[in-house]
Amino acid sequence: MPLEPPEAQAVKTLTWQLDGRSSRSSQQAPDGAAQPATAPAAAPAAAQPEEDPDLIGLDIWPASIALCRYLTNHPELVAGQRVLELGAGMSLVGLLCAALGAQHALLTDYEPQVLAHLQDNAALNSLQQRCASLRLDWRQPAASLAPEQQGSWLRIVAADVLYASAVVQPLISTLRLLLHPEGVALIGHQVRRAIVLDPATRLPRLEDEDEPLEKFKAACAAAGLQHRLLSSRETCSNRDSDPMVLLAVGGPQARLAELPLLPSES
């Protein structure tokens, strides 16, 4: 049975459908059966202070669905690969990678309560033999990873991790530590612009740019990482109006130009 989340009684189940079939039961299905994932009905609106648990990961955010759609259309990107998910949350993306034939998926997050759900969701989908979870602090990533894991990952996935400018540099450092020279990180992001007070009119307005996203692009270049926009499309959620983007980030030898674009960008 699904583990009851600590902050909500209601649990929602999302069923991902592959090859025209769907299921709410847990099945190991690298050949294309559906994989459900569970999450609380709601997540906190913002991260909690350092001493309190940050439970923002206890939900399925729209960018993870957008990234899953891309991977479902291009399973060859993860099939047979070792895949690491950063900021996994409920790990919809990481579990899908395992279902699409990834050799192994390492699902990482920082919060212990979120990690407990990772294990449970893998078991719900009968993927526990192909998935492992790990507590990973982006501020000290080397402390959590064996030396042989560093610089060894050809595939990294992450969704909705650029929610604040403060995470940009830790994320960049983590990517540099983890990525193989030919490795690629696929990052799904929902564009969000902060509301600020216009100094001229003294009225609230949206910022012109998504500050964390733009800082991340600049930080990639400064760190010697390539980045390429694979998509820019309207949201897949009826509740949200901000666009989705899919970024590929890689080391100096990564062949980002060979990655497929979403149909809207082709």
TrEMBL record:
This is S-adenosyl-L-methionine-dependent methyltransferase. It comes from the Eukaryota. InterPro entries: Methyltransf_16, SAM-dependent_MTases_sf. The keyword Methyltransferase applies. GO terms for molecular function: methyltransferase activity. Residues 17-49 are annotated as: Disordered. Keywords: Methyltransferase, Transferase. Residues 27-48 have a biased composition (Low complexity).
